[in-house]
C-alpha cells in the first residue's frame, strides 16, 4: 500500500475569497455535506474572526460534518485563534490553521516586523492553538517568495511548539514546478524535526501552475494538498481538487501515494459549487468541463469506438459522468454517425442509403456546430422519403 495523500479542501475559505463567490451559511453547509460524501479528509470551512456570518458558517459546518476534519483559519493572533476554537467546538474532529507571512516583502511592507518577531509570534500562536486541539496547522504565508534559511528556522520552531501539519503556500502563484519541488525536498531534508509533521502544499494559479506546482511538491514528499472544487479561489484561484486527485489516481505509475476520495462524487461537487457561486465551468475544463470526455473528430471517434483507451486516459464514469460523449459535428466520421444512429434505433437497409444520409449530415454539419438526435431523425426521414 502506498502513502495516503491528505486532501484538504478550502473551497469554503480560500474559494470563497474569490471576488463574487461569497456563500451563505446554508450554502456552505450544503457544499460541506457534498465534500464529506466525496470523502475529503479536511474541510476548511472559513475564517471565523472575519465576520459574524463566517463564524456562524464555520460553527454550522462543524456541528454538521462527522466524517471529515473541520478546520478554521486564524492569523497568528490570540483573538483569531480563540475565535476559531470557539467556532469549532462542536466538531467531531477539529483543526486550527494559523498563519503569518514570512517573505521579506510581506514582513517589511505589510507586517512591519523583523524575522525574529515573526518567528516568535508564530511559535506563540501554535502554542495557543495547541491549548484547544492537538491538530494544528501552520502556514508561512508567501513561502514561495521566502528565504529558505528563514523557512527552515521558523518551521523547526513551530514543530517544536506543537504544529502537526506544515503547509507551504505559494500565495501569489509565483513559483515554477521544478523549483517548488526542490523547495519541498530541501525543507524536509534540512529541518531536523521534519518527520514530526506532515508537509502540505497550497498553490495559487496566477501563472496557471497551481496543479503542476502541487504535484511537484507531492513528488517531493508533500502528503497533503490544499485545493478547491473547480479551482475556485483568490484571484486566478487555487489548485483544482479534481485535477490533483485524478492526476494522482491516473498516474499511479509515477506517484507513490493515493487518496481515499470517492471520485464518482467529483462532478456532483463541481456542479453544486458552480450553481451556488454562479461561476460557470468552462467547457474545456479538465475533468468537469462539458467537453472533458466528448469526442468530435472522426479519427478520435473511430478510435474510441474501437477501443476507449485510444483517446481516453481515464473513464468518464470514474468522476461521475454517465458516459463519454460522441459529439456529431463536421469533423465526425461515418463510423460515429452509424453508431449514433444505432443507439437511437435507426438502421439503414443498404450501404447506399447510409451514404446518402451521411452526405446530408456532412452538409448540415457545415452549418451547425453540433448535430443532435432530433436533427438526425429529421435528416433520416428526409433521406428515406426522397429516395
Ligand atoms: O494563499 C495563502 O497563503 C493562504 C494561507 C492562508 C494559507 O491562503
Ligand atoms: Zn491561499
Automatic annotation (TrEMBL):
Residues 5-267 form the Pyruvate carboxyltransferase domain. Its cofactor is Mn(2+). One of its GO terms (cellular component) is cytosol. Transmembrane segments: none annotated. Its EC number is 2.3.3.13. GO terms for biological process: L-leucine biosynthetic process. Pathway: Amino-acid biosynthesis; L-leucine biosynthesis; L-leucine from 3-methyl-2-oxobutanoate: step 1/4. It catalyses: 3-methyl-2-oxobutanoate + acetyl-CoA + H2O = (2S)-2-isopropylmalate + CoA + H(+). Mn(2+) binds at residues 14, 202, 204, 238. It is an enzyme of class 2 (transferase). The keyword Amino-acid biosynthesis applies. GO terms for molecular function: 2-isopropylmalate synthase activity; acetyl-CoA C-acetyltransferase activity; manganese ion binding. Keywords: Amino-acid biosynthesis, Branched-chain amino acid biosynthesis, Cytoplasm, Leucine biosynthesis, Manganese, Metal-binding, Transferase. Belongs to the alpha-IPM synthase/homocitrate synthase family. LeuA type 1 subfamily. Catalyzes the condensation of the acetyl group of acetyl-CoA with 3-methyl-2-oxobutanoate (2-ketoisovalerate) to form 3-carboxy-3-hydroxy-4-methylpentanoate (2-isopropylmalate). Homodimer. This is 2-isopropylmalate synthase. It comes from Thioploca ingrica. The lineage of its organism: Bacteria, Pseudomonadati, Pseudomonadota, Gammaproteobacteria, Thiotrichales. The chain holds residues 1 to 387 of 515 of the full protein.
Amino acid at each position: 500500500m502506498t502513502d495516503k495523500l491528505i486532501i484538504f479542501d478550502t473551497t469554503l475559505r480560500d474559494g470563497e475569497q474569490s471576488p463574487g463567490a461569497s456563500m451563505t451559511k446554508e450554502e456552505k453547509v450544503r457544499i460541506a455535506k457534498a465534500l464529506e460524501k466525496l470523502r475529503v479528509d479536511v474541510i476548511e470551512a472559513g475564517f471565523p474572526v472575519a465576520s459574524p456570518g463566517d463564524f456562524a458558517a464555520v460553527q454550522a459546518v462543524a456541528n454538521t460534518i462527522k466524517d471529515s476534519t473541520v478546520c478554521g483559519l486564524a492569523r497568528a493572533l490570540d483573538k483569531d485563534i480563540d475565535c476559531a476554537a470557539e467556532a469549532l467546538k462542536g466538531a467531531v474532529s477539529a483543526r486550527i490553521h494559523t498563519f503569518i507571512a514570512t517573505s521579506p516583502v510581506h514582513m517589511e511592507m505589510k507586517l512591519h516586523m523583523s524575522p525574529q518577531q515573526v518567528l516568535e509570534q508564530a511559535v506563540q500562536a501554535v502554542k495557543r492553538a495547541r491549548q484547544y486541539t492537538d491538530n494544528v496547522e501552520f502556514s508561512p504565508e508567501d513561502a514561495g517568495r521566502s528565504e529558505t534559511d528563514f523557512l527552515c528556522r521558523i518551521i523547526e520552531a513551530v514543530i517544536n511548539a506543537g504544529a502537526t501539519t506544515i503547509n507551504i503556500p505559494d500565495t501569489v502563484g509565483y513559483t515554477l514546478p521544478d523549483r517548488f519541488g526542490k523547495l519541498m525536498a530541501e525543507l524536509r531534508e534540512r529541518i531536523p524535526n521534519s518527520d514530526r509533521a506532515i508537509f502540505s502544499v497550497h498553490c495559487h494559479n496566477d501563472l496557471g501552475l497551481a496543479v503542476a506546482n502541487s504535484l511537484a511538491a507531492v513528488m517531493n514528499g508533500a502528503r497533503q494538498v490544499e485545493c478547491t472544487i473547480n479551482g475556485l479561489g483568490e484571484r486566478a484561484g487555487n489548485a483544482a481538487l479534481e485535477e490533483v486527485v485524478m492526476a494522482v489516481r491516473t498516474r499511479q505509475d509515477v506517484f507513490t501515494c493515493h487518496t481515499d476520495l470517492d471520485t464518482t462524487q467529483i462532478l456532483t461537487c463541481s456542479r453544486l459549487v458552480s450553481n451556488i457561486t454562479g461561476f460557470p465551468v468552462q467547457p474545456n475544463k479538465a475533468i468537469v468541463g462539458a467537453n472533458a470526455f466528448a469526442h468530435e473528430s472522426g479519427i478520435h471517434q473511430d478510435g474510441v469506438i474501437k477501443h476507449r483507451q485510444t483517446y481516453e486516459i481515464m473513464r468518464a464514469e470514474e468522476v461521475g459522468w454517465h458516459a463519454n460523449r460522441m459529439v456529431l459535428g463536421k469533423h465526425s466520421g461515418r463510423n460515429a454517425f452509424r453508431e449514433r444512429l444505432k443507439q437511437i434505433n435507426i438502421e439503414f437497409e443498404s450501404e447506399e442509403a447510409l451514404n446518402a444520409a451521411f452526405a446530408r449530415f456532412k452538409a448540415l454539419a457545415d452549418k451547425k456546430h453540433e448535430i443532435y438526435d432530433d436533427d438526425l431523425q429529421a435528416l433520416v426521414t428526409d433521406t428515406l422519403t426522397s429516395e
